[in-house]
Amino acid sequence: MHIHATFINHNLLYCMTQMNHKNRAMDNLKPIFQCGIFLLYSLQTSFASVVSTGNFNNDFFVTWSPSHVNTSTDGRSRSLKLDQESGSSIASNDMFLFGQIDMPIKLVPGYSAGTVLAFYLTSDQPNRDEIDFEFLGNVSGQPYILQTNVYADGFDNREERIYLWFDPTKDFHTYSILWNLHQIVFMVDHVPIRTYRNHADKGVAYPRWQPMGIKISLWDGSNWATRGGQDKVDWSKGPFIASFANYTIDACVWKGNARFCRANGSSNWWNNNEFSSLSWEQRRWFKWVRKYHLIYDYCQDNERFQYNLPKECYLSKY
Predict the structure, then answer these.
(1) What is the distance of C-alpha 38 from the center of its chain?
(2) Chain segment 36-63, per-residue pLDDT in tens
(3) CB 195 within 8 A of CB 317
(4) pLDDT digit string (tens) for 245-297?
(5) 281 Cβ contact list (under 8 Å, min separation 6)
């Protein structure tokens, strides 16, 4: 884990200048006191924001069935297993408020119908916030479905589904969540597949106050995951194994004060203005995904919502 410290330098230089000032009269203690406050704030903010380059043993713990979780000796890769006995899951040691998580995943190969692999952020509160990737297993030869969802203040019903444009079982592909004050961006190999903007000023709930932890789980979703539950898990095709490696967490670790995580700056880079919307290149890719790979969008499901779509469906996506 590497601590951001670049932006401390300016405040440190200011403090040294004040401390070395020739006049040591009591009148000059005020700027010295102020520089101490600046340094304290900088250190707190810096230590709140971290970059982790991928040791599962350091950053995650097993929450379900340790016998079904396998980790490499160096801690840089891990797999989860589902069989007739049990599924499995892990969770991050820390909670976060804003940042970006990149998780390279190789999905369950072959016949995986009925299985669900979930990679998500969750606050685990009754009125929980949650940002979900869910990979829905398939019958051999059929495309994998990636479902995303957003919970805000305990309410979800915001599912979208796409077909992935590659075979996600042959190699690792990176699935990312960018979460900041302005927007949530779901990405696949850095291609934005979905956004959820902060329209709180227009009465739309947005995850912005509750810290969230990272969770990954592999489980039996036979009753709904594949073709609405028509294709079940075939245990004779198991065990079902998904693999993870070389992840990156660049996020603000929750220390009890949202002010540090909501600040702009070089440490909390994700809150800066350039990440407040998609770039022009990202918008081009986003439109490509929506045109050729989107298979379900709750904002197009008038029947489900009885022609009263959620408010965010009428607002901008970037």
Answers:
(1) 30
(2) 444 444 444 444 566 787 899 999 999 9
(3) yes
(4) 999 999 999 999 899 999 988 889 999 999 999 999 999 999 999 999 999 99
(5) none
Mean predicted confidence (pLDDT) in 2-25? 42
Cα–Cα dist 15/10, whole Å: 9
Catalytic residue among 85, 130, 159, 281: 130
Closest to 308 in 3D by CA, of 110, 157, 137: 157
- Please give the pLDDT value at position 256: 92
- 164 in Cβ contact with 188 (< 8 Å): yes
Q: Are 219 and 80 in contact (CB under 8 A)?
A: no
Contact criterion met (CB below 8 Å) for 54 and 245: yes
Closest to 213 measured CA to CA, from 119, 130, 121, 99: 121
281 is annotated as an active-site residue:
no
Q: Read off the pLDDT of residues 234-244 as tens digits, 9 standing for 90 and up.
A: 999 999 999 99
Residue type (1 letter), 60:
F
Of 214, 185, 2, the C-alpha closest to 105 is 214
Partnered with residue 178 across adjacent β-strands are: 100, 185
Q: Is 274 a catalytic residue?
A: no
Nearest to 105 by CA among 117, 116, 93: 117
Q: Which is catalytic among the residues 85, 134, 303, 312? A: 134
How many Cα atoms are found within 13 Å in the side-chain-facing hemisphere of 264? 6
Task: Count CB neighbours of 208 within 10 A.
Answer: 19
